[in-house]
Design goal:
single chain; 118 residues; mainly alpha; Arc Repressor Mutant, subunit A; 2 domains; 7 helices; disordered N terminus
Length: 118
């Protein structure tokens, strides 16, 4: 059985439009839509990368994907590149979006098929 989405996490097209068109002020949007801040922040991120499929990966994204495929954690990758762990997690989400994968494992398989990874 799949996870059931709560009504609170589903967004209308009008809400998506408000979220995606507003460049900042996630708290203001959350207040306006009477939604939790974190749900608005997450939705804004998903909408931002929703249309990223097909865009080429940067050199850094390919390096991160290679490290992930070798079993490295976000924490270790962050230490190696001297960037926060959360940034590595964010870049992983972008990699998945760009490759059109369901998750990072599926994205690694897609990258191998496309010749991005060996």
């Amino acid at each position: 059985m799949g996870r059931r989405k709560s009504k609170m996490n589903s967004f209308t097209k009008e809400e998506d439009k408000i979220i995606s068109e507003n460049e900042g002020g996630v708290r203001a949007i959350a207040t306006r839509l009477n939604r939790p801040y974190k749900s608005i922040a997450n939705r804004k991120a998903r909408l931002k990368y929703k249309n990223s499929e097909g865009l080429p990966l940067t050199k850094e994204e390919i390096e991160i994907l290679e490290l992930v495929s070798d079993g490295e954690t976000c924490e270790l990758i962050g230490k190696k590149y001297n960037i926060p762990t959360r940034t590595v997690e964010w870049k992983r989400q972008l990699i998945v979006a760009k490759l059109g994968g369901e998750n990072i494992i599926h994205s690694i398989k897609l990258a191998c098929r496309k010749g991005i990874l060996k």
